[in-house]
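User: Assemble these into one structure.

Assistant: Restating your components, then the assembled model:
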Amino acid sequence: MSALAVQVMTGLAYGMLLFMISIGLSIIFGLMGVLNLAHGAFFVVGAYVALSVLRGVHSFWVAALLSVLVMATVGLIMERTLLARFYGDELSQVLLTFGLAFIIADVIKMIWGARLQSLPTPSAFDFSFSFGSVVFPTYRLLVIVVGILLAMLLWYLERHTRMGAIIRAGVDDREMVSALGINVTLVFAAVFAFGAGLGALGGVLGAPILGMYPDMGFDILVLSLIVVVLGGLGTWKGALVGAVLVGMIDILGQAYFPSLARVLVFLLMAFVLLIRPAGLFGRRGAVS
Amino acid sequence: MLLMLSLPLFAPSSITGLVTEIFILALFAMSLGLIMGYAGLVSLGHAAFFGAGAYTVAILSQHVSNAYVLLASATLVAAGLAAVSGALFFRSAGAYFLMLTLAFAQVLSSAASQAPSSLTGGSDGLNVTVALNLGFGEINSQTGLYYTMGGAFLIGYVLLRLFVSSPAGMITRGIMDNELRMRALGYRTLDYKLFAYTLAGALAGFAGAMYTYFNLYVTPDFLGWIFSGEALIMVIVGGAGTLLGPALGAAFFTILQNYVSFYTDYWALVMGVVFVLFVLLGRGGIVHIFRSLWGMFFRTGPGGSAEPQNADDRTIPSARKGEMS
């Protein structure tokens, strides 16, 4: 029983990490039509940047903050220089980001080396607490809490801010939003940077649990894609539900049906798509 | 042409081996090129079919030794997978389709990796001891393999050429250009797309099977999306709108992979940069470069300086506004 509880908690934590990376992918695609196959890079490079920062500064949180800011900036630069010219030509964007993903993986190898590394759990949370007979690692609980806070923040942004309304409108009808005189370029850039930063946050928070290695961007991307397809494009709710589902099934699957874990995730996705081709919360034309 | 025919007779064995490998990968790339350039389906999971063919031969060869049976089974397995996955995934448009194919390949790769070692060799892969015997003795010399793979490549090319010039092929291309119009004309577009996809899957499986005979080793990497992505790179770099473009891309990729890794560990970086450059410059790959050069040097007649914009000269036609959403 206690083992199950720990697995569930780990699954939730993993799901929250997936949420952080997938939300960027989902909103960016829903709003801008950009399927960024290099999105996993924000997650991984974010973790590596934090690693480097930690060599000089000995605070996990400072490292996390700096990493998020750096990756948000990188995302901004990436969007402005490389992707902006291909709006409308979505295939080229996919190909471009795909090539970038390869390049980035090798650049990581060049700068930080190819072996598996990880970040130390921040000392404030590096303990477990017991709840009856169950022993929980506190850090995972923290990750879950951060995820919930993020979801609340996104809910608030979506419902009660102008930016949220613009994004919701943009996901529904991009041309109309720009016809209304809203500076779409600025919105796109901001959303992209935000998504990149969130991905980095996920990477940094995840590093004490998942570690990091140069090809991790690819692995995370695959899971993110499944989350996004499952949850629906352009919606943070979809990313949240999808991520939690995928996270739980992946972790519980690995614990109880190790040889079936990934297959289960895929089956879930296929099942959902059969009954709702646009994903659980998706609305944009995903059906041909 | 003559060069290719006589290569093994004078080239060092490393080069012969390289070209043999290129033949197989070219077949794989061409099959992806078919669905991308003629059916407008961009897939990041095509390796699933290649790997399925490869694993079928690897696993079955432990029980069956008839090469024809093995090859046929591999092709059928791959074709079956293609038909099933195509039927399931075609309901989803562009980007969703891409993501589904990617996930599909990954699932197969994970399945192979996590299946009991006795069956698939797990994540370490499976060593295969099988010799290609087409009825006139075992072919396991380098030269023999070279000609066999070259033959396989030619067969595949002819098959593709036949399809593309057939009415079915034309219709498929019409579907790529404008599916709604074709549907309005009364064509069952799904059937044509499925046929092209299954054909491509079958050829990829055949290539995978051949690769097992050549490489004598299979691993889950042959099923995954990264290998699929490499095929995608081959198609784009070589030129997506033509049949031979992807073959050239395969040659380019394999040669680069082999020679750059001599000098640096970071050949993926180099390949990535080259690929990105090709995408940024937006041309039809190497084929387009060749055509332009040819046109520059051998301009004859009143053709003018504009390349005729026939179907063969484009990059993937679905790279148009709104097509992927």
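The two ends of chain A are 45 Å apart (CA to CA).
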